[in-house]
Every structure is written in structure tokens, then in C-alpha cells.
């Protein structure tokens, strides 16, 4: 009787390049990126010009910074619905302290960072201690911050807007660092693009090459199993909420320095855009799966669609239709890729 051939250990088995690419979470986003770019580039010469690229990379950069942080949190199995309004809170703190109370721009930004970190810590602490869904906890934070933004801004200025940041001490240096432009091939690109690339690279390194990255995937995949093998689940989740808050502070500061004024309702509704970009980039709503690069690609798709619709002269309302369609298609694609990946492992 001939013995059956021994099956190779899957941990050391060679896996082809095509199979490795297929199971990558950002595959669907890459396909979507190519399709969307090809469509708008074929329709508009301005869209594919250097100036056009700079134009649609601008909104992609600020969205991408937030999408990457939100993606990390989603991989860890949680959501943050207060991320959008917190960008407004951070911007309001910066402008209000710098223009109404004599703070320089840098101390005002530091104060905003402290508040953002406190909000993120509070969100994470409540979620981990009470075991309430993060959806509910951060929805409550969203409503509270929205009320504070409106109430405090009206009490101080009598309106829903605070401005005049350009006259504050330290504005020029902070603006050049966060809201300035750089020249590439004779075209002006926003400095925020460099921040976005750096944050994406850092987040990718953390996820793929560090122990905290393993912890993030573990607590998002199965928190109880992660605890059983010694993963500090509570600390990991609190750190993820604080990371999202730091990203919101950075984006809020960038926008405040760019426009030199902030409205009390800025950022409201953007939290869903961040989540959609992360989902398009391959993140699962159930946690434990996704990538920072994919979230950034999702942000680029949004930037291209946002400006591409304008370049083609379409009604801007079609952008909302595009968001919904991309969300559904990305969710279906992610489900198929995830199912295939599980089959490959088994």
C-alpha cells in the first residue's frame, strides 16, 4: 500500500505572487482607483493635468489623514463617530485662543491637542470599561461636542464663526508647516499631502512590522482570544481612540490655518466619509482586517470623484450617489476577497 504524500506545512509553503495580491485587503480599492481615474481622465484634460492632480489630491490628503486613523480603529474592532466634529473642535480651540485670548498659534495648537487627546482617552476608557458599543459612546460624544462647539462659539463671538487667525503670533511658521504649498515641476501642491503620505507610511509600518500592529489585528479579530494570550486589549483600544483624536486635531489645525477662520458646524457629517473611505480601502465593519494603504487609496478615489464631477460640469449632487455606489461595491468586493482568503488558508 502506497503512503499518501505528506502535505506541506502552510506556514512554509510557497505562495504565488498572484495569490498574495488577490488576498490583499486593498485590492478592490486599487481596481476602483484605476477605473475612476481612467473614466475622469478620458473625459477631462484638466483632470489629468498636473494642476488637476494637485487639485484632487488636496481634499484626498486631509480625508486620507483621517481615513488612515479611522482604519486603524476599525481594524481594532471599533468606530468613532465623533472624529468629524472633533476636527471642528480642534480648529475652534486654535482660532479662539489665538485671536481672543492672546495665545500664540503654537500654544493654542498645543491646547487643542491636549483636548483632543482627552476626548480620545475618554471615548476609549468608556468603551473598554462599560463594554458599550463604540457606536453609541462616540455618538454621545459627537452630540456633546456639537453642542459645545455651537454654544461656546456663540457665547464668545455672538455668531457661529470665529476668524482673524492670520494676525496671531506664530501664524506664518505654523501655516508654512501645515497649510503651505510646495512646488513640484512648476505646480503647487499642498504640504498636507506630505503629512498624509508620512502618516500612511507610519501606520503601515505599525500594522505590518510592529508588536502593537499585531495587537490591533488581534483585538479586532477576537478580543477574548487576544486577552487570553496576553494582548493588552484595553490599552490598545484606548490608544487607537487617542490616535483618531490626534488625526482629528491635525486636520482641524490644517484647515484652520488654511482658511484662517472656523465655523462651529465644520466637520459634522465627515465621520461617515472617513468610515466609507476605510471600507473602500478594505476594512471590514466587523474588525480584524484592513490596511492603512487601502484607506489612503479610498481617500484618493473620493478626491478624484469630488473634483472630477466638477471638472465635467456635472451637478454636485451626483457625488452623493457615487459615495453610496462605491460603498456597496467595496463592501461586496471585500466580502469576496475575505472569503477567498479564508479558503486559501484552509
* Separate helix tally: 14
Strand arrangement within the widest β-sheet reads: 1-4
Radius of gyration: 22 Å
* Average predicted confidence as pLDDT: 88
Notes on the structure:
- The chain has helices at residues 17-22, 27-43, 50-75, 83-100, 105-130, 134-157, 171-178, 192-209, 211-221, 223-228, 233-259, 270-280, 292-311, 318-345, and strands at residues 161-163, 181-184, 187-190, 261-263.
- With 346 residues, it is mostly helical.
- A hairpin with a 2-residue loop joins strand 2 and strand 3 (187-190).
- It has 14 helices and 4 strands.
- The protein has a two-stranded antiparallel ribbon with strand order 1-4. The protein has a two-stranded antiparallel sheet with strand order 2-3.
- 71% of the residues lie in helices and 4% in strands.
- Helix 3 runs parallel beside helix 8 (192-209) and helix 9 (211-221) crosses helix 11 (233-259).
Keywords, separated by commas or semicolons:
346 residues; two-stranded antiparallel ribbon; mainly alpha; single chain; disordered N terminus
Please summarize what this structure is.
With 346 residues, the protein is mainly alpha-helical. 71% of the residues lie in helices and 4% in strands.
Tell me the layout of helices and strands.
Elements: H1 17-22, H2 27-43, H3 50-75, H4 83-100, H5 105-130, H6 134-157, E1 161-163, H7 171-178, E2 181-184, E3 187-190, H8 192-209, H9 211-221, H10 223-228, H11 233-259, E4 261-263, H12 270-280, H13 292-311, H14 318-345
Antiparallel strand pairs: 1-4, 2-3
